[in-house]
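It is time I had a proper look at our fold encoding. Can you supply me with one protein entry, sequence and fold together? It will help me judge whether the discrete encoding reads sensibly. Leave the record below and I will have a look:
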Amino acid sequence: MFTKTFKSLSQDQDRWLDICCLFGLGIGILLRLSQYLSNRSLWFDEVALGLNLLDRGYFELLDALDYNQAAPPLFLWIEKLALETWGSHEYALRLFPLLGGLLSLGLFYQVTRQFASGWSRPIAILLFSVQGYIAYFASETKPYSWDVAISLLLFTALTSINTLKPSHKQLFIAGILSIFSIWLSFPSIFILASVEAVNLLKLQPWKTSWQSLQTFLRRRIPLYSAWLISFGGLYFGIIRKTLSDTGLADSWAGRYPDNFWDIGWLLDSFGRFFYRPLGFPGPADGVAIVAFITGCILLYRTAKLRLLYLSSPLIISLLAAFLHKYPFRERLILFLTPFALILLAEGIVFWLERWRKQPRMLSLISILMATTLILMPLWRGLHGTIVPTSSHFDHVRPTIEYIDTHWQSGDKLYVLPGAQLQFEFYNRRIELPKSEIILSQLQNIGIWKVSDDDLEKHYQELDRLKTTELQNQDRVWVLLARKQPQSEEAIVEQLNRLGTMKERKQYPGAMVGLYDFSS
């Protein structure tokens, strides 16, 4: 009787766990679809990649990209195909990233079945589904959502061959996935290296018989050879050229530690990781760090191998940063988020299970911290699903559409630097007359704060234009983007000193004004 009762209770708990997991997946799907369908404008980085796709053929995309961009070849080719098939529209360019984001949800669901225990599983799925930074990249024309999907796919494939004699079918699948993954996701090599390193530590083939070692090598060497050939072709054919012909290497220089003993950099980077890409704003990021460490300690005591698998991608990525080979920053390490969230969820569950324990005050604090880490992202995720426009920024497309709708013969358009790349992309669709467009020759001035020197240069350029291209012009459109409100108002004040504003339309991160410069 007692056995039947215990079995019934266990089945009830499993059923509730599955229901909560599916609830989390459902929110994740809705959030990603809502963000995608909200159809925000392509922002600066997206149009930079989009212009490369528009202006280059498939083989030309293998060269170093313009505008300081870089993306894996397979990703670029799929995006190019989407662009040629459906046109240079946001839905077309973001469809493949959306598929990566949706696939990641299903793959993470599978990974948690093996590497998360009890209630940590639905909590990890919920956090993965609703965290804004993870969900956001499922609708951006960048490869980061596929970095996550490929990481989970390889993680699943490689942990399934953690035996001395995996089947030829398993090895073939792992090999094919690895070869293509390397060309679709730059950080995939870190997953291959980290998970296989843990496999080797678990199997310790060097301690087996000579016959078993020979069998192991015969099955593994072709797999390793495929990895090396694929990665070697990518590195020497694409990556090395990209690093030498773009400014990416210089822009990453400040993101590396000074030396192997740079503990300050390590602590700072570890802390930043919980803000971006994990998505916990301060001071919740500090609470998340404690939960993560708690989860690591718990697994160290109860499931060391699980801890080793989940933490190995993080360790390998940090090692690459110390070797100055890959920056440990923000979206570039988005692929690490699934593994970190499982460890963090383990810590949250440990805190929640303290509710009956003494001292009571410590239990209450633990529960408060745990619920904060769950409810804060959940609220933000639900809000982002219901009001997807709340995450819009650099929303330049409607400004250009507004200008096009209200354009009159004789109008001029003055485009400030922060909006020029987006204008170039969107004007290929709208086709405002190029002879009536004036591009500012200034360097892009501060997004957060505009200096007095920058404002003076802007004033001088406008004053010169009033006596040349804009002389006696009573209808001049001014397009401004990529500015915080304070910087935008400082520039508008300069415009108002030289002309009369007739109208002004405001969009998230973008503004268009109509001015009379005839007086």
Residues 449 and 487 are 5 Å apart (CA to CA). The chain has a mean pLDDT of 91. Residues 397-516 form one domain. The chain has two domains: 15-390, 397-516.
